[in-house]
Amino acid sequence: MVKKKTEVTSKKGASAASKVLRNPNSSKKAKSSAGSALSQRNAPAKVTSKKAASAASKTLRDGRTSKSSKTSAGSTLTQRPDKKKR
Length: 86
What we know:
This protein is an all-alpha fold. It has a domain at 29-41 and 49-78. Helix content is 56%, strand content 0%. It has four helices and no strands. It has helices spanning 11-22, 28-39, 50-61, 67-78. The longest helix has 12 residues, at 11-22. The chain is globular.
């Protein structure tokens, strides 16, 4: 039986995501990740899509991203269901 994730974005993570979305210099991938994190603020049933998780991963690996971008990307990845074990 697969355990469902019931995590939501924290207040700190939502604030960081908001900053990323309002920043005109934020990348498209960072904004995608931030949007996903913000949409899951008070919705424990929602999970991160594969596309948003990929954008969050790229945001975290990019050395040029801001602390706010990395915070919201981390929150997004935390809410992604675990990979199935083979």
